[in-house]
Every structure is written in structure tokens, then in C-alpha cells.
Amino acid sequence: MYSPYHRRPLPDYFFASPLVALLYPFHQLLLRLRGPPRLPSTTQPIRVVCISDTHTLEWPDVPDGDLLIHAGDLANDGSVREIQAAVDWLHSLPHKHKVVICGNHDSYFDARSRCDEDRDENGSFANVSSSTASIRSLDDMNAASRIDWGDIHYLQHSSVELSFPTTSDASSDTPLTSSNSRTLTIYGAPQIPALVPFGPEHAFTYPPHHDAWSRTIPPETDILVTHTPPQAHLDMSPVYSAGCPNLLAETWRVRPALHVFGHIHESAGSEPVFWDEAQRAWERLCTSRRPRAQHSRLMTLFGFLRDLFDPSGWADAARVLMYGMLGVIWAQVWGGEARGGWMVNAACMYRASGKLGNAPQVITL
């Protein structure tokens, strides 16, 4: 039996849904041909370096940038020891601004999941449900952090607004003002859907059917940082999707310029999104075929019959191609400006190897 966190053999994708498997490369090609979903600022470009899932290890040569984001899973056992060691490494990096959220392996931050060595006399918070814990911050649970963050911004269901100076002011002592700086609002949240029966040592898991996201992200968010990916984007989709559909719906509401996540090691990379009919149609196709992932391999062999007699699926496939090609014409022929964003799976851990093998992702806003 395959884990939902491990990529399936390529034939499985084809047998589960030949229509979607054949459409996928064309969809990705059209996304790339449309050009960047959001052009960098011509006066104050901000270079964002994204990492995640380092699991106590240190990437040897993190690229330079204005902002460093770590999207969770700094540790393996989630102890204060491991987390502080990872934070100390982040301290040593030269980036002016650093933002960190936790992941399901960073169990110290969910008081229900702490290691025995990190528990205090207040108990284990065993009476707190997973649904409640997934949307409550460490401060809400009256538990002080023992991590020395220094100047690192740790986000747990919270936001921070950061200012970035212009190139000419970056090396001077001139105070930052709205006229000589650019600001970004960053929101971070750690929760993940429990697609497998995680043990109590895993933090911030919630039942897959539970909505831990709706109306939780401030609409003014420029950069969204989560540990789980949204469904249908860099989450081993199509069909075998490990992302959260409720998070996907919330990203449609907020439409951040950049959404950084990790958790699914095998889908590391970046993907443009355009918040248009091509994307809606693609996501509907992925959602409608997701239940097939629950079937046995023998049952997925009937995927071609289901696709053949699915007129709504064929209509959505046509929308993906038609609106995707219109997007290419709009951007490349008519010179229209796209107003989309980037989704980045920044997982540095290579599959389940225990080694870092996926390079940090760099996006310029």
C-alpha cells in the first residue's frame, strides 16, 4: 500500500485518469508560456528565499536575499534542543529579515505533542481537540516559548509587516519611511490535514474533513506561509493529492502574491497561478478525480471508462486548454499584464532519504 506522501509510479496516474494525466503536461506548458504571474517591482524588487523541511539539517549554501522564509519542519522529534539548534543556524544566515513557521515535526509548538523532556507541570493539554489546536496559537494556550528567536519572526496563526528599503537607502542610516521603503504583510500558520494516522507526537494535525482555514487569513496578506500545500498545487496531484481543499479555497479568497509551503517532499518546486478560469477548471478536474486515490490499483484500471463517460470532465479539460491559450496570447501577443502569484513548495528534504537534496527556491517580488 502506498503512502499518500510518496509519489506513485507514472502508470498509476494514467490508469486512474488518462484525461488528466495527458492534460497535465499541456497545462504546465501553458502556465510557463504565459510568463511570470507577477512582474517584480522595477524600483524596489524584493528577493525572497524559501526553504522548508530541513529536519535538523543545514543547507550548505543558502542563496542571498532580502527575506528568508522557513515553512516548517525544522526538527525531527520536535524537542527544544533540535528546534533551537535549527534556529541558531538560521541566525547565522545573513538575510535581513527571517520568517519561520513550524510543521508537524516541530511538536514543541503544539502543547499536546511535546516531548516528555519539554513538558511542564501544566500537563499535556490532552483535553484540547485536534480541531481546536489547529487554529489556536501558542499564546492562546498560555504556554510561554522557550525558544530564543532573536530577530527571527516566528508566526503561528499571526502576521508580521516588514519594511524593505530602496537600493539607495539599504546601505545608509536613513530611517525607513513609506516614501523610501516597501512593505510586505506575511501571515503564517502551521496546521496540516492528517491523511495518515499520525501519532500524538505530530503537531497541529486536524481531521481531513475538518475546515481549519476558512476566513482565517487576513485579506491584506502579501505572502502566505503554511506547512501544508493547497490541494492541486505541488502536492503530488493530479489524483493522488495530499494538499488541503479548504486551504485552496482560502487562497482564492486572499490571492497572495506568494504562497510558500513544504511538507510534501516529492513535489518541491515553484508554480505560477493566475486565479482565472483555466486554473478553476484544472482544480475541478483534480478534485473530481481525488476520490480515485482511495481505490485499489485494480479499481483504478477503470479510470479510462470513467473519463470516457464524463462530459463535465471533458468540458473542464477544454477550458484548461482554451483559457490557457488565451492567457498566452494576452501576455505574449497583446502585452497584457498578468495579476497572479507564485506557489512554492520549498521542501529541502529529498523524498524520504534523510538528506537535503531539493535546492532553496528564490522568488523576486
TrEMBL record:
SUPFAM superfamilies: Metallo-dependent phosphatases (SSF56300). One of its GO terms (molecular function) is hydrolase activity. InterPro entries: Calcineurin-like_PHP (IPR004843), Metallo-depent_PP-like (IPR029052), UPF0046_metallophosphoest (IPR051693). Residues 47-266 form the Calcineurin-like phosphoesterase domain. It comes from the Eukaryota. CDD domains: MPP_239FB. It holds the Pfam family Metallophos. PANTHER family: ESTER HYDROLASE, PUTATIVE (AFU_ORTHOLOGUE AFUA_4G03130)-RELATED (PTHR12905:SF18), METALLOPHOSPHOESTERASE (PTHR12905). This is Calcineurin-like phosphoesterase domain-containing protein.
